[in-house]
Amino acid sequence: MKKFKKVLAAILASSVVLSFAACGSKDNSSGATTSSQTSTSTAAATTSATAEKDPETGLPMMADRNNPITFKVFLRDPGQAPSKDNPVLKKITELTGVTMEFEFLVGDLQQKIGVMLAGGDYPDVVFGEGAKFVDAGAAIPIEDKILNYPNLKRHYEKFMDKMKAGFGDGHAYTIENYNAYENDPPIFQNGGAGFFMQKAVIEESGYKIPKTVDEYFQMIEDYKAKHPDIDGVKTIGFEVLSDGWRDFCLRNPAMHLLGSGNEGDVIVDQNSFTASLYQITDTAKAWYKKLNDEYHKGIIEAETFTQNYDQYIARLSSGAVLGTFDQYWNFQKADDTLKAAKKFNRTYIAVPIANPGVKDNFIDPPAAITGTGGLLITKNCKNVDRLLAYYDYLLNREVQDYLAWGVEGKDWVKVGTNGRKLTDERRDIMRDTAKKREMTGDTLWQYTPKMQGMYDDGTPCDPGASKEEYMAALSEYDQNFLKALNVEFPAGILSEPVKRADYYPVWSFPIEDGSPAKVANTRFIDVCRKYDPQLILAKPADYDALWDKFVKEVEAANPQPYLDEVNRQIKEKMDAAKK
Amino acid sequence: MEQKSVVLQTKTIQTNKRLKRVKEYKQQIPLFIMVIPCMILTFIFCYYPLSGWIMAFQNFRPAKGYWHSKFVGFDQFTFMFNDPVFWRTFKNTIGMSIMNLVFGFVFAIGFALLLNEIRSIGFKRVVQTASYLPHFLSWVIVCSLISNILSTYDGTLNNLLMGLGLIDKPVLWLGEQKYFWWIVAFSHVWKEVGWNSIIYIAAMSSIDTELYEACEIDGGNRYRKMWHVTLPGIRPTIVVLLIMNLGWLLNAGFEVQYLFGRGLVMDVSETIDIYVLKYGITLGNYSLGTAAGIFKSVISIALVSISNYISGKLDENSVF
């Protein structure tokens, strides 16, 4: 044991020395010729590495797999890291020598990152709030580096302009691990913002699809009147989540009613490309007035403004909530719980609500890379080249298949020539969060660069993009439900996605900390946060007076510096795209 | 001549004194050495971090560090003192703190007095243990308990009041500004009353039993005994605790306000600590956060000194 420790220490020490040496050589290579030389040598190293194959899985192996290294990765999402016994991650570590240590978010993201930056104490890789790290000088530009690796180059070259435009200084800092599609995947359902409705409500109304706010609430009212309880729980008509940063459920609906995509705190005129506040438009006034009516009718419980996220999820999971405005990923947990409980008629579907005469615009077309989201390599990274070589390795198609699909025959089977679906056992594993974490490579796949969408030959890159898998996973209830609605997928009842302008979306814009724009943004959002619930709970007679007060307060909070900054960045990004 | 000898004498006395002091110091060298580690620790953990206060006078950016950030003098303080949001948080802090202090003291002392009167030792112990257990619960748990109790949706309190016919419609306790401070104060009481009373119970147990006998002989009943013996007996404890707590007046707590703070009650729930968190850490304006922190420390030191001075005047019971 002691001897083993000594050996381990020796290996560790040598790896540290090696990585220092690597850093040293990198610093010296200032001239263009030297850097191109290093690039060819690393590229050569990776190709030679892929020559050897693992006998068990047939996957390629990396040359320096016997030289272990651990990278720490901070993730913006709450969750749980897979255990060390996960067979898939173990295998990848065995083949590459690289261990990824994932640190999931606990508590508030902004605070966590604020503390990290104040202390200069950040891990090798960060996923989330890239702008703050770039602003603090903690990020490494990667635009030249990733082109040295064949798979990374092939995968990201086509997005490079967008990636370089992200932070406004001409450098790319983040390796986008989501939405960098090979070819666009089919859209099955609205995974983002939308007005969601319980399928039972639609079923009961004779499969009528609501198109306006009035129709939406009328259907909810009718259903609630007929079913005051659902499975012994009092029926709740509509939920408005108002907890912390998730209160977009409270603040954003007017934006979507106006027919805008999900921009964030402003809407942007698609002809003049200028931003304005939707929070104080007539649409917003009418929306909160409608909610005010519904509150007084008992469709909305006042409690919705004081409950926290977990309580909200618990409510939705009970199956007693008829409608909510939310983003699907934000309440997917509840939807999954309902599915697991086989209450398929209590799950949700996004309906096309917009102002009369306005086309709904909920679904983003695929390939919406923001240029600011993704994996950011920090200055503290132990060995940037090794990390990129690892990412490059993961982008091999065999490795991607292994992570996203598993083993053919055991985990998935072919359908037709290029179609694929999971086996029943694997599907059950994927539906169980704990099993998915411990038995598949899902966590690693999620938080590393990956192939998404469809390969050129029409094979889906992952189960999420597979039509065959989607159909196979549908419950009988859902199959009949879709048949009755006469659509192939739930997304069929929403309008086709329209191509977004090059700047889209505003919420991804980096706003510098402590700048007047940031302060203005915080201030006017705080006003909305304060007044929106008050408007809903106000006595109907007081509504107009309160609305006027609200508009005055928003103006007093002086949102102009924020609008100016947004307009500046829209122009910058549009100009960059024109080049 | 005589004068000279006097001068000489005083001189020798002075040198003697000095020698004596040096000797004393020498004798105490081992003690000094023993103190050094503590002083180093105190320096590292209490004084060295204060160097970060320099941020408050800069426009601090993490990318530039202390050395290269721009000095802006008192700009951060000027911004803060002109910021209505800051004064709102200041008012909330003081308000909630005073309520916590008053209710905390009244309930803890009252509880200790009542418990002290219980004759059955077993029962007393059970009650005491049960009452201080909530102290060990995290605020997150306490807050979710409280929000369940106060819920409009099958919440205990609303059900009770409706059952008694006192209200005809559930009250959204956590969404009304006028109730917020009371909810915070009573949450603190519920969680901390048992714990805070321990020290009073300890103080009561050290009161001389002869005093009670004397009171009984003078014809005092139980209430008299409480009033004339027990309370004066624990007066020094009360005063010392009060002084120590006054220094914490600007710490109205953070968790409850943070966990219950929704848009509806934002105006009354945000404390200075939340202001520091929001502007300092979340919005990355570290300088402003530090300035607010300094302001808080200065006021706290002033409060401790003042209350110590007053209690010294009143009662010889000052802490330092």
Structural write-up:
The complex is a heterodimer of chains A (579) and B (320). By secondary structure, chain A is α+β, with helices and mostly antiparallel strands. Chain A has three domains: 1-30; 32-183 and 371-393, 3-Layer(aba) Sandwich (D-Maltodextrin-Binding Protein, domain 2); 193-362 and 509-578, Periplasmic binding protein-like II (D-Maltodextrin-Binding Protein, domain 2). Helices cover 45% and strands 11% of the residues of chain A. Chain A has helices spanning 2-28, 32-49, 87-96, 109-119, 130-135, 150-156, 160-165, 199-204, 213-226, 248-251, 253-257, 282-297, 309-317, 328-340, 384-394, 397-404, 424-431, 433-439, 442-446, 467-473, 476-485, 516-537, 543-556, 560-578; strands spanning 69-78, 98-105, 125-127, 174-175, 193-198, 229-230, 233-234, 236-239, 267-268, 275-276, 321-327, 348-351, 375-377, 412-415, 419-422. In chain A, the strands form five sheets. Chain A has a five-stranded mixed beta sheet. In chain A, strands 8-11-5-12 form a four-stranded mixed beta sheet, with helices on both faces. In chain A, strands 6-7 form a two-stranded antiparallel sheet. The longest helix of chain A has 27 residues, at 2-28. The termini of chain A are far apart. By secondary structure, chain B is mostly helical. The model of chain B has no long low-confidence stretch (mean pLDDT 87). The longest helix of chain B is centred in the N-terminal third of the chain and has 33 residues, at 84-116. Chain B is flat. A two-stranded antiparallel sheet of chain B has the order 1-2. Chain B has two domains: 2-57; 75-315, MetI-like (MetI-like fold, Orthogonal Bundle), CATH 1.10.3720.10.
